[in-house]
Design a protein that fits this description.
mainly alpha, single chain, 2 helices, elongated, about 90% helix, about 0% strand
Length: about 55
């Protein structure tokens, strides 16, 4: 039974990693992409405005 307890943690970590990758892939594109692009554009515009004022 020691081999079962030795194999469980790697399988659990692999399952969490696969779930993480699936979540990242699903969040790419679509409405989320438009929101993320808008947020990045706003940050860049604010940074440019700050630099121009100096």
């Amino acid at each position: 039974m020691d081999y079962v307890s030795a194999l469980v943690p790697p399988f659990v970590m692999a399952a969490f990693f696969i779930a993480l990758v699936v979540t990242i892939v699903k969040s790419q594109g679509g409405a989320n992409k438009a929101k993320e692009d808008a947020a990045v554009d706003a940050v860049l515009a604010r940074a440019e405005a700050t630099q121009q004022q100096k």
